[in-house]
Amino acid sequence: ETGVTQTPRHLVMGMTNKKSLKCEQHLGHNAMYWYKQSAKKPLELMFVYNFKEQTENNSVPSRFSPECPNSSHLFLHLHTLQPEDSALYLCASSQETGGAYNEQFFGPGTRLTVL
Amino acid sequence: GNSVTQMEGPVTLSEEAFLTINCTYTATGYPSLFWYVQYPGEGLQLLLKATKADDKGSNKGFEATYRKETTSFHLEKGSVQVSDSAVYFCALSEAGGGNKLTFGTGTQLKVEL
User: Fold this and answer.
1) Which residues numbered 80-109 in A keep a CB inside 8 Å of some CB on B?
2) CA atoms within 13 A of residue B11's CA, in its CB half-sphere
3) Which of A11, A14, B26, B48 is the most exposed, fewest CB within 10 Å of its CB?
4) Residue range B44-97, pLDDT digits in tens
5) Is B49 exposed, middle or buried, given 0-12, 13-18 or 19+ CB atoms closer than 10 A?
6) Given pLDDT bands bounded at 50, 70 and 90, which one contains residue B28?
7) Could you give the 3-state DSSP secondary structure of residue B51?
8) How wide is the angle at C-alpha B25 spanned by C-alphas A45 and B93, nearest 5°?
9) Checking DSSP bridges between strand A10-13 and strand A110-114, what pairing results, if any?
10) Candidate from B32, B51, B103 with C-beta closest to A43
11) Are A90 and B96 in contact (CB < 8 Å)?
């Protein structure tokens, strides 16, 4: 596997279900991100992890719970979601060097539908 | 706060036509500017970037010039191909803001034969 991978690619869940999204980066990066992509809206940054530590939580509801066990893996745990949470969830990674911008590499995303 | 405004799509062009996708921004300080492209079923890929005023980013025939006086970063290509059909996102990174990106809504481009 190369780059950034995400599983599953598609997920349908009911509002009472609990599920998890997985992201893995094979680039040796030290920063990982979760974004939400909804139709006709800008990409929304949800969470940022640097060296496994969460450094950004963009006022995301607690029904989304991230986990970063190591710098290569990132999870997004989902519970009691709402239909408006249906979207494409994108994971990204980058090499954080402190201050200067470094390119973010994105995975293909998980298409989530909440019924 | 920072924001990025892109023209609404979809933009539909014939092959070999000239492309312009407008992007304007609002930011404090001197941001870096980017265009990302998302092909069907894939994640976003960095297409080009510019880090200071009057810089021109270019890649795969696409170009964009950082215009501080008009706070714009319009994407252009002289002759589009069917394979350029994708969604294009303009984004900025605030100076000193590390890797935090602010994206526009994206503009879908459809190129037909």
Assistant:
1) 90, 92, 94, 96, 98-99, 101-109
2) 24
3) A14
4) 999 999 999 999 999 999 999 999 999 999 999 999 999 999 999 999 987 666
5) buried
6) confident
7) coil
8) 45
9) parallel
10) B103
11) no
